[in-house]
Amino acid sequence: DLPAYWTESTATYEQGAPRVTVTVRIDPAVIGALADAVGIQAVRDAEQLPVEDPDGWLHLRLTADWPEEVPGRLIGLGSRAEILAPPEVRDRAILLARRMLERHGAL
User: Fold this and answer.
1) Are 26 and 60 in contact (CB under 8 A)?
2) Res 52: pLDDT
3) Residue 12 has pLDDT above 70, yes or no
């Protein structure tokens, strides 16, 4: 039974996929772009943290697939998002951004 096999196989794959939990501060206007970057399900399942932000931005804790790709995806949101935690994801995003600026002669 192919449909049953596919459903079981997909569920097994998804359970074993590497993931990372990230806390971000984000401009609500780019939630759609965040969903494009990390997946709509990750954004739907995100926990909104009860933080009073001076700019009206949201603080979200979300879990995304493929930890190695997450920093690059998040820097694609530019100045409309800030990675708050974990430090290793933030540091990797900063490194990638610096490398891009260096490549373009901006540093």
Assistant:
1) yes
2) 96
3) no
